[in-house]
Every structure is written in C-alpha cells, then in structure tokens.
Amino acid sequence: MAGAIAVAGSGTSVRRIAVIGGGPGGLYAASLLKRLDPSREITVFERNAPDDTFGFGVVLSDETLGGIEHADPEVYRALGREFVRWDTIDIAHRGRTHTSGGHGFAALGRRRLLEILHERCAGLGVDLRFRAPAPPAAELAAHHDLVIAADGVHSATRAAHADAFGPSVTEHRNRYIWLAADFALDAFRFEIAETPYGVMQLHGYPYAPDASTVIVEMREEVWRAAGLDTCDPAESTTRCAKFFTEALDGRPLRGNRSSWLAFRTVTNSRWSHGNTVLIGDAAHTAHFSIGSGTKLAVEDALALAACIEEQPDLPSALTAYEAERRPVVASTQRAAAASLRWFEELAHYVDQPPRRFAFNLLTRSRRVTHDNLRLRDASFTAAVEEEFGCPPGTPPMFTPYRLRGLELRNRVVVSPMDIYSATDGLPGDFHLVHLGARALGGAGLTMTEMVCVSPEGRITPGCTGLWNDEQALAWRRITDFVHTSAPGAAIGVQLGHSGRKGSTKLMWEGIDQPLDSGNWPLTAASPLPYAPGVSQVPAELDRAGLDVVREQFVTAARRAASSDFDLLELHCAHGYLLSGFLSPLTNHRTDAYGGSLAGRLRFPLEVFDAVREVWPGERPMTVRISATDWAEGGTDAEDAVTIARAFAEHGADAIDVSTGQVVPEERPEFGRSYQTPYADRIRNTVDVPVIAVGAISSWDDVNSLLLAGRADLCALARPHLYDPHWTLHAAAEQGYTGPGAPWPLPYGAGSRTPPTGRTDGPKPRLTLG
Questions:
Q1: Distance between CA 513 and CA 530 in Å, rounded?
Q2: pLDDT tens for residues 228-280?
Q3: Where is each NADH:flavin oxidoreductase/NADH oxidase N-terminal domain found (predicted)?
Q4: pTM above the 0.90 mark?
Q5: Strands across the sheet with 276-278, in order?
Q6: Which end of the chain is more exposed for a tag (fewer CB within 10 A), N or C?
Q7: Which candidate in 349, 576, 593, 678 is catalytic?
C-alpha cells in the first residue's frame, strides 16, 4: 500500500480529472489528487444526495489508517475523533458465548465518513456535484486527462467497456441484508441461529456509541424456506430481530433502504482503459465477512494518487498502480473467498465442539492463524488446544494420531512425490536417500511416489513399480532403513496405474509429453487422449482388461505387505486410471462402469475391495481423490463428498483429498492452502478422517487446520523438497522437544538453531558531524 504520499517524482501532467461515484474511494482519490496539486480541476459526480448512504458502519484496519495518517493527517485526525474502538470477538452458538481478545477494530458510521470526506474535498476546492449522474465514461474521457470510475459493484463504466476491462462477476449462494441496531454491541459478534428453516448467522459490530451494524446471512434455500423471499423490507427486519433475540436482547432492528442481496465477487483482467481507471468495488470486491470493501477502495485511492505523482506519464502511472495493487487485492480476495465459503458451509460445522467451532470461525479466512491467535489471546487458544487433546506444551501438529493399528507420532505426512529415478521400476539408492532423509526429518508418515502395478501402468520410464519380487526386495531395503534408523516413523506406499497419462517423458524433459520412442500401449476407462492431437489414444478396458488390472493391484498389494509398508494408499486422483473412471470428463462408458456417479465408482471400489482383502487387517488403507476437476462438467465438491463416503463405507481409513490434474483444460484457483477447503468439507460431512494437501507451507498452517477441525493429517510436498528436516525444524522453531518429534541420536547436536554472526555490537558513544 502507498504510505507517505509526499513523493519525490515530478508527477504526471494530469490536470482535469473526473470521478464517477462519490463513495469513500472516489472522494478520497479526489481529495488526495487535489491536495497534491491545488491547480487541478477535479469534479466528482454523485447521483445521490449528500446525506444518502447505504449501509451503516465502516470498519478500517490499522494498516489503512496508517496510510491515511501519512497521506492526509487532517482526514486522519477527523476520523480519529469519530472512531469506536474495541478488540474482542464474541461467537455465540448453542447457548454459549466464547470470547477472543486482542484483535483491534476501529469503526465509524458510513454517513459520518462521507461527511468528513465531503468537507475535505470542499475545503480543497474539489467540485462536488450531488444528484448528478455522471456522463458516460467515454464522453468524460474525451474532455478530461483522467477518469476515475469509482461507481461500485454495479459499475456502468465497467459494463460499458467490458471488452477492455474483461470483467468476471460471480454471484454466490447466500442471501444477506444490512440492518442496524440502536445500541452499541461491546464486541464484534457472530451469532448462530439454528432455526426450523436452517442455519442463519448474524455479523454485528458497533460503529457509534449508540449504534451497531447487523448483517443477517443464510443460504438461499434457508431464506426461501423461512419465507423471507416474499417479505417486504419492514417485515424482513422484524423477523430477523426475532431470530436473534439473544444478540439484540429483545431490541428491534432498523433498515436503511435495506434489501436481501446475493454477494457478487468482481474481478477484472485489466483495471484501466485509455485514461479511465477502475478503483474500489468497480475493480474488485471482497466478501463483507472480512470487512475489506471500504479498506480496499481507500487503499486504491492512496496508491493511484501516489503513482500519478511518481510516474512521468499517465500510462506509466496506471500500469504502476495496477502492478502495486493487484497482488494485494488478489490476496484479500482469496481470504475473502475462504471466509465466504466457510459461511456458505456453516451448517457442516455447527456440531463441532464449542471452542473448536469458535476457533474455526476465527481462522476461516486463513489470515488469522493458530500462532497469531495465540499472541492475541493466549488463554483462549490454550483452551482450544486442551479441548483438541494437546498435551501441555505440545503444538497440535505433534499430537499422535491412530489409523487402525498404526499410531503416527505426529500429524505431518510427506506427500507422495514422483521422483522419476527408477530403472525398470526398481527403486535404488536415490529412493533410499530421498525417503530415508525425510523419515529421519521427523514426519509421522512418509509416502512413496505412485508405485505402479505393471510396466504398462507407469507414467514414465523412471517410475517405480511393485510388479515383481526384485522390486519388493528393493522396497524392503528402504522400509527396513526407515523402521531401524527412524524409530517411530511410518512409511506408506501409494499404488496406482497411469491410465491414459502414461508413456510420457520424465517431468523435466517435458511433462505429459509422449516419449519420442519406445512407447507402450495405454488403457483407460474410455478411448480419450489426455491431450488431443498430442497424447496417445488409449484402448478402452473391456471386461477381461478390468479383471487383469484389478489382479495387478492385488498382486502389488501383496508385495507391498511383504515389503513391510505400514500403510497403503490407493491412487484414485490426478487423472490416472482409477481417477479416469471417476470423472465424467474422462469416463464416457455406456456399460455398468460408466454413466451415473454410482456407475463410475464401480470399478475403483472393486479394486479397493480386492486390495483391502489382501492388505493386512491391522494396517490402514487410504484413498487419494481429486475432489474437483477444476473444469466445467467435471467432478465437483458434491461429487467428492459422495466419492469419499463410498470409499469410507467400503473400509477406507482416511481420504487423502487432492484436486485436479484430470484434464489439461483445468483452471485451478491457486493460492495458499487452496485445496484444503475440499478436505474440510469431506471431513465435516462424512464420518471419515482426511489428509489435507495443497500449498500447505508452514507449521502455523498445519496447526491451524488441525485445531479448526478441517483436517486430521496434513501432507506437504514442496516444503519437504526444500527442507528434508522440515518437521524437526518446525518443532525447534516452536520450542517443542517432546516425543512427537524426536531427533535421531546422531543429529542431536543440530536440534538447536545454529548461531549467526553478531549484529548487536556496541553503539558509538558520540556522533559528530
């Protein structure tokens, strides 16, 4: 975010500026640009009257206020005189209220915020035109050097130039309404109401000594079942007050042109077009549950004004503005999307233990985590840890976990990672060192790469296998090392068949690209190439072929047992053979193994049952699935729940929840912990443990996911490539030395962070100059 706005650049030659929209973002941009150069002619067009405003209170963060303080101390002082401040969050659910402190909020009335900005603009000489709809942006652009489109979520400017801005507007499935109460809540309050119609939630916070904002939200089907879709605004307001009598202490709510809305997430591929630029909700929106709408608009205004002052011309300024703001906005939108989804799925969490539910709510966006919540409110976090079952002084990730007869010493899993370093399927020294190092590094469970059940089931010539006894003996060498040299560590094998994604080059030679020579024939659920025109067309497995493949899995499982693996995972993800049966995008069969999801599940379940029958009963068996194909018409989150439930009913001890890699046209929503919501949903819908994967990169993420009840185990890949001793280092960084992360005896001297060069030498007694 742009900080102090008195920058050294000479500024652009932007003299005449039109601002479309008189909300906080547009007004603040106008005041900053006028303050930087009083000779500028700046006009703000606002279709409403000065005292018209929607909503009630506005929450601003310390970061945003810091930027305002540096850029315009006068506005900062005026805001400071109005703020209501508090630092606690109350979560009320099933007759109990849990309070977490140390959060820090500042709020004021939206109307008062606008008044302060009106006064500032008028004092600087900005031309404020109320009850004046703006001319079209194209018309303004012809007569102004810069047009700032701050015209909100329903931006006419964005719509008129959609071909240039490339907007995407996604409407979500919850309904909500902005209301107010004529008293001040003493905390940011979340209250859950379990009604005959379904689960409803209240978000409330004070914004004045005698007033609070109250947002009531629920799934659309709950809204309709309650009859709120047919209520007028007054009746909706009355009924909402009755749903939340505890939070309101029986007092009424009031509206302000309030109506039921469905939140819209707005993104744009570009934020500027010629000399027109989008800011605030016109450019992007973030769900109200993380309170970022006004914050983002104000920060946009700060950055835009700074870039105009710093850069030599307007095109450079607009490019710099977007480059500065887009990563910040994208991060906020990811957090907001996580929060939005959490509230959409609220009904899945209401049966959690009370403190876990509260912790889950507080950490829903992943911006508040276990570690910083412990700093904010140590007593609350300690109570959550105790309820979870953490022994004293033990972080959640170092609590043991049992799957059948296997007790894992901690919750960290080294995720399967294809190494592509085998010869004829035989694991060698590289595999011994790779897997052995990570087992020595402290993880509770270390997984092999996908071990192929047949030569033709390999992905590449470098894949390992378990189709002969020589390979089984080579694997036994590795499991013996883990069990002997890393006592208490477990090692698991992932069995799979490449299906239509086989006979390709090593990853670093060309991922998913066919071999130049020496290709082997492929089989799959349907004769569909992975990459049309590039990949080999696989043969559709007939009845005899299905039987052969099933028996290959069974034989490999027997060898895995003799190799002394502690756990077996069946690979039904990432577009490989069994995954190819599950996805409607890759299974076009018309027999009993295609069609409905029940049909598509049939063969993977047959393989699971056959493997489970020969896998030792005391050893656990897990299944990895792709919970979404990230592609239209493919497997989605609802299907994933059904798939997970089916495997659980057949005896799976845990579901390893990954996503994607099924079709090349996928469009993943990458980001921190981006796959964990799918594990979360399965865990809190189906009675089965889950392993969460997907860009989990810190021990704080692991602790947060476990403590919130979103996962039972966390699997990490890239962090373990970067640092084979990731788990032991995570223990050292948290000051943990217990049984969940024992250092190998030869490594004991390395259990403390090595000292570094001194940087705290004596300061000079005198400074002369």
A1: 10
A2: 999 999 999 999 999 999 889 999 999 988 999 999 999 999 999 999 999 99
A3: 397-731
A4: no
A5: 127-130, 41-46, 16-20, 146-149, 276-278, 272-273
A6: C
A7: 576
